């Protein structure tokens, strides 16, 4: 019933395919420059996209948009999507992040291996080629070694309204540049002593074209190449080359790279002219990033939340990380549905968190089996039911999927019900238990409330009732009683008492740390002040016995409450603990 939202990149891919734009591409089954690709057969993949994370952190919901877009297009159009670690920054990258990124992409249900190709790549594998390409730019007069200090370079870059100034080193001879770049690689110079720059135009209105840096000296150990290199490519130089070496057709990134596209094209054109790359060259397309209310997606803020222990780690179910979402009980299908629904455009958009929650609800409603849980337990004593006796009631596992069958739930004299399902003095319109009223114990019997027991302070400690033996659900007598209340329950003698975590949104306002609107004088506030103090509530619940066998990550609808998952970290065999993924209805109100 939902029309897919606009996705302008999908339209571009469709048009490109219709025009046969990529039909002549060759692919040797492995990345490489023209010399490697030239003799290869035509590429069997109609398009190639890539998801290029830098392994310097955990993936968040924003990355999921990029993953769904890139892998989704490949899936839809008979293409392939590469998972490429953009590991050109030796200081910040770690194997821990690489592993977590691999897990997250797999968890979302995407794959880069298909039995023919294993498209997992590392930018660091291309460093030798990048050096060679930089040398070619020097040879053709398109790059030079600059020896200005960082401050001089900054001062000479100019501004949006002022052109930059040429470096005094800009006209070094090819031979001198070759010599210096070789010595940079040999480790003769300290970090920052020289830098290799593209020679384009210091007066360009696009600051990104004012002789951008392409290789810098960095004496650092890289997590994959070790100490082999002491010069590392700049991201803006490395990224287009990575795309071209991997034969990417549509290089999709977020809007902040729009101003980089002229350099992307400039660089690849020069390298193709030099015979190092094959045409057609990849093309960059930019889309607007995912922004969500009630969360922060900035890496800096996420790190702060973790390091200052406002949450319990990167996989805290309240964090908008994909490891957190997984622990929370969110579904991969829910993320895919969300991305399909919000579409792909170039205009900035802020998606309400309730849209994400609704996608999770819809997919969980489909897939999650139903179970009974009493979260705020109050004893119900059936005074006319024999002590020590029990019998089975049967509850359907999924109302939309009768093929999933029913399970037995023991019924006995003492049950747990929700505290809110009894009122000694009912308010108007209350149909649950109060003295004199009848209600159905779902999948069990109709009971008539006869009173309650209280402690010295007047708190209700047990509700008393009598059951109607001929009213059992599923028997012919069940229809004899017309009652409005329909309560869930578990047998006290059989229940599994478990820890349940009721998670809610981590922030209590839609724009954590942002202006509340209205008052232009108001300063940005500290986003930490907006943390919701009730985002995690731990309770002791009484669960139906079948839940004792729940496996880690198994998801359920707890009837009347919401969707829950057996926590994948803290659950033990035979002793699962549960996390609330999302309530049955949106309670935040908009
Ligand atoms: P940083 O550059 O600070 O490391 P990043 O979030 O850009 O952070 P990357 O590892 O470069 O991290 O991101 C990988 C891919 O995910 C990039 O193509 C990036 O554009 C995309 N991406 C990141 N954040 C979002 C977002 N909020 N919405 C959509 N795509 C995103
Ligand atoms: Mg990243
Ligand atoms: Mg980035």
Automatic annotation (TrEMBL):
Presence of the UniProt keyword Ligase in the record: yes
Family annotation (InterPro entries): Gln-tRNA-synth, Gln/Glu-tRNA_Ligase, Gln_tRNA_ligase_bac, Glu/Gln-tRNA-synth, Glu/Gln-tRNA-synth_Ib_cat-dom, Glu/Gln-tRNA-synth_Ib_codon-bd, Glu_tRNA_lig_a-bdl, Rbsml_bL25/Gln-tRNA_synth_N
Signal peptide boundaries: none
Motif ('KMSKS' region): 296-300
Residues annotated as binding ATP: 54-56, 254, 289-290, 297-299
Location of the protein in the cell: Cytoplasm
Gene Ontology biological process: glutaminyl-tRNA aminoacylation; glutamyl-tRNA aminoacylation
Enzyme class, broadest EC rank: ligase
Primary location recorded for the protein, binned into one broad class: cytoplasm
Binding site for L-glutamine: 86, 235
Segments forming domain tRNA synthetases class I (E and Q) anti-codon binding: 487-567
Keywords: Aminoacyl-tRNA synthetase, ATP-binding, Cytoplasm, Ligase, Nucleotide-binding, Protein biosynthesis
Superkingdom of origin: Bacteria
Catalyzed reaction equations: tRNA(Gln) + L-glutamine + ATP = L-glutaminyl-tRNA(Gln) + AMP + diphosphate
GO MF annotations, alphabetized: ATP binding; glutamine-tRNA ligase activity
Domain Glutamyl/glutaminyl-tRNA synthetase class Ib anti-codon binding span(s) in chain numbering: 368-467
Residues annotated as domain Glutamyl/glutaminyl-tRNA synthetase class Ib catalytic: 46-365
The protein's Enzyme Commission number: 6.1.1.18
HAMAP family per record: Gln_tRNA_synth (MF_00126)
Cross-referenced NCBIfam families: glnS, PRK14703.1
Family per record: Belongs to the class-I aminoacyl-tRNA synthetase family.
Subunit structure: Monomer.
Name recorded for this polypeptide: Glutamine--tRNA ligase
Species per Swiss-Prot/TrEMBL record: Oryzomicrobium terrae
């Amino acid at each position: 019933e939902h029309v897919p939202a606009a996705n302008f990149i999908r339209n571009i891919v469709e048009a490109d395919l219709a025009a046969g734009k990529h039909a002549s591409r060759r692919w040797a089954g492995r990345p490489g420059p023209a010399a490697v690709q030239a003799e290869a057969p035509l590429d069997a993949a109609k398009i190639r996209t890539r998801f290029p994370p830098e392994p310097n952190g955990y993936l968040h919901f924003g990355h999921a948009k990029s993953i769904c877009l890139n892998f989704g297009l490949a899936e839809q159009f008979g293409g392939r999507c590469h998972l490429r670690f953009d590991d050109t920054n030796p200081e910040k990258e770690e194997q821990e992040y690489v592993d977590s990124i691999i897990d997250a992409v797999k968890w979302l249900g995407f794959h880069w291996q298909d039995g023919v190709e294993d498209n997992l790549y590392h930018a660091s594998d291309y460093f030798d080629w990048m050096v060679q390409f930089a040398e070619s730019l020097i040879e053709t007069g398109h790059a030079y070694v600059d020896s200005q200090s960082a401050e001089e370079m900054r001062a000479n870059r100019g501004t949006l309204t002022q052109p930059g100034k040429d470096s005094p080193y800009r006209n070094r001879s090819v031979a001198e540049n070759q010599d210096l770049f070789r010595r940079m690689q040999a480790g003769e110079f300290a970090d920052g002593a020289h830098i290799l720059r593209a020679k384009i135009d210091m007066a360009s209105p696009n600051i990104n074209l004012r002789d951008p840096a392409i290789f810098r000296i960095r004496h650092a150990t890289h997590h994959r190449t070790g100490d082999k290199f002491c010069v590392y490519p700049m991201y803006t130089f490395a990224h287009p080359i990575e795309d071209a070496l991997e034969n990417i057709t549509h290089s999709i990134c977020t809007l902040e790279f729009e101003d980089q596209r002229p350099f992307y094209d400039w660089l690849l054109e020069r390298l193709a002219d030099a015979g190092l790359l094959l045409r057609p060259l990849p093309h960059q397309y930019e889309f607007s990033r995912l922004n969500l209310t009630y969360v922060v997606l900035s890496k800096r803020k996420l790190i702060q939340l973790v390091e200052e222990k406002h949450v319990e780690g990167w996989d805290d179910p309240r964090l908008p990380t994909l490891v957190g979402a997984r622990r929370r009980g969110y579904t991969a299908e829910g993320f895919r549905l969300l991305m399909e629904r919000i579409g792909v455009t170039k205009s900035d958009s802020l998606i309400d968190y309730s849209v994400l929650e609704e996608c999770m609800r819809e997919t969980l409603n489909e897939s999650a089996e139903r179970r009974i849980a009493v979260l705020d337990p109050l004893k119900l004593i059936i005074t006319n039911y024999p002590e020590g006796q029990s019998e089975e009631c049967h509850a359907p596992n999924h109302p939309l999927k009768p093929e999933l069958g029913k399970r037995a739930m023991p019924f006995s004299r003492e049950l747990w019900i929700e505290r809110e399902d009894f009122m000694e003095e009912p308010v108007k319109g209350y149909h649950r238990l109060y003295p004199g009223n009848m209600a159905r114990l779902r999948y069990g019997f109709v009971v008539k409330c006869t009173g309650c027991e209280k402690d010295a302070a007047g708190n209700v400690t047990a509700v008393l009732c009598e059951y109607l033996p001929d009213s059992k659900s599923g028997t012919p007598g069940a229809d004899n009683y017309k009652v409005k209340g329909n309560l869930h329950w578990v047998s006290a003698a059989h229940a599994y008492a478990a820890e349940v975590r009721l998670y809610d949104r981590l922030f209590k306002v839609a724009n954590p740390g942002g202006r509340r609107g209205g008052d232009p004088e108001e300063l940005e506030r500290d986003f930490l002040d907006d943390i919701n103090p009730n985002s995690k509530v731990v309770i002791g619940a009484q669960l139906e016995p079948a839940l004792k066998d729940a496996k880690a990550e198994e998801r359920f609808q707890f009837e009347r409450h919401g969707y829950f998952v057996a926590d994948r970290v803290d659950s033990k065999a035979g002793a699962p603990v549960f996390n609330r993924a999302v309530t049955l209805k949106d309670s935040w109100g908009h």
